[in-house]
Amino acid sequence: MKQLRCPVNGVRPVQEFVFGGEYRPMPDPAGANDDEWADYVFHRSGEPGIQREWWYHSSSGVWFIAERDTAKDEFIRTYLFEEME
Amino acid sequence: MPYRLLRFALGGKYGEYPEPRMFHTPDGLKKKYDVVIIGAGGHGLACAYYLARDHGITNVAVLEKNYIGSGGTGRNTAIVRSNYLTPEGVRFYDESIKLFQDLSAEFDLNLFYSERGHFTLVHTDGALRTMRWRAEVNKHLGVESELVDRAFIKSECPEIDLQCGGNMPVLGALYHPPGAIARHDAVAWGYGRGADQRGVEIHQETTVTGIQVENDRVTGVHTDKGFIETETVLSAVAGYTPHVTAMVDLRTPLVVHPLQACVSEPLKPWLDPIIVSASFHLYVSQSSRGELVMGASLDPYELHSVRSTLDFAEGLAGHLLELFPFLSDVKVLRQWAGLSDMTPDFSPIMGKTRIRGFYIDAGWGTWGFKATPVSGKTMAYTIANDEDHDLIRPFRLSRFEEYELVGEKGAASVGH
């Protein structure tokens, strides 16, 4: 069974988690022009490789960040958003 | 065929090919081509075919890193339909069905194109509303499509358990009589042979490693077999698109998820129509070989891998048995996955881009096979005239920055 480490609840089966998409820093909504905003809203990096993503532990309601290799289906590490470098 | 085989065996020609091969293997890459198409799947080969047949452009190379039809073309569940939700989508896919219907004769190749009728089962009031909406849009645009009741479903598919074991009973269905299945590999072979006969070169096992762009204009393509001069490149690689768009620094909204499918052992023919249930994340049809061809929804997270999972097989089997409990002893014969390049509005991305000479045919998610003929035809027009074909203008890449999406999610057969 595939497992994922929730930073709060420890290692749990991946079925308990929901994928929340690639982590993307939001531009300042007041300052961004239409192109920058469209780029933020729609565009994704998409290429295979190591990516920072949002994941949600549905049993406990924890959102956190996972670094994952999207070519190999391997989680590298997980941590809370506050701990992101 | 048996007669031809016998003639071959007795003809004293043993050791020679009884039939010519479908494609030539070109000696090597030329220095220069008018058009380079990346990807020898159905879409790339169809575009090459129509470029040669309709527009007289034959100095074309189709580059394929693997073999013909090795990507989504050979991995889909071969369903063809046009009962979409948006007028843009319905017009586009309906043109594709019309092209499909004549294709076997045009190729002189049996595509096993088989009109079965397509049922999208409805289990909730909300879905019933969407299906009524779809049926009206479809009929308005001349597509056969209607909402049918339980009795009609039962008469067309007596084996179905409409109560679903008591869990989410079927309330009705969207019925689309022209819904069909076809032999997907043969579609790529037919287009490939037709293009080959007209002078197009198909280079298999040739990987594109870079695209040369100068002043926002394509000037060439780097491959593992050398450099090619060209001013026109079409990327027709579906699930591998982000890799190609990165070569030209083009950002797209594509995210890639695996889509898994499987077939059962062959059974006597019993299932005529194509049965889809969005609520159960399931679609099933019976192939001409008797195998049940089954698929589900996308894998739940992004991944660039065609691995199979037990989760998928278990989930699919559970839902299949709610509709057809008598299949409990049937074995799964093969399981596989393909890559789906998903867009946020569930419509494809087609046509010109901001880089002159770089054309895109992508965003084929879970709806690429049925669009093979029309995408080839409209992309060939777009390349030959350097102007987006009317049918694909709504699908241009710039629709996202223009905030003009074509929301097709309600018609994606399976909830994503």
CATH architecture of the largest domain in chain B: 3-Layer(bba) Sandwich
CATH class of chain A: Alpha Beta
The secondary-structure element order of chain A is EEEHEEE
Count of beta strands of chain B: 20
**Total number of helices of chain A:** 1
- N-end to C-end Cα span of chain A: 30 Å
How large a portion of the residues of chain B is in β-strands, by DSSP E?
15-25%
What fraction of the residues of chain A are assigned to beta strands by DSSP? 35-45%
Given the structure, what is the number of helices of chain B? Answer: 9
Describe the model.
The complex is a heterodimer of chains A (85) and B (416). Helices cover 11% and strands 42% of the residues of chain A. Chain A contains 1 helix and 6 strands; from the N terminus they run βββαβββ. A 4-stranded antiparallel β-sheet of chain A has the order 3-4-5-6, with no helix packed on it. A two-stranded antiparallel sheet of chain A has the order 1-2. The mean pLDDT of chain A is 95. Chain B is α+β, with helices and mostly antiparallel strands. In chain B, the strands form 4 sheets. In chain B, strands 6-7-5-15-16-17-14-18 form an 8-stranded mixed β-sheet. The chains are: A mainly beta (85), B alpha+beta (416). The interface between A and B is medium-sized, with 23 and 23 residues.
Annotation keywords:
A: 85 residues; Folate-binding fold; four-stranded antiparallel β-sheet; two-stranded antiparallel ribbon; 11% helix; globular; B: 416 residues; FAD/NAD(P)-binding domain; D-Amino Acid Oxidase, Chain A, domain 2; 2 domains; eight-stranded mixed β-sheet; six-stranded mixed β-sheet
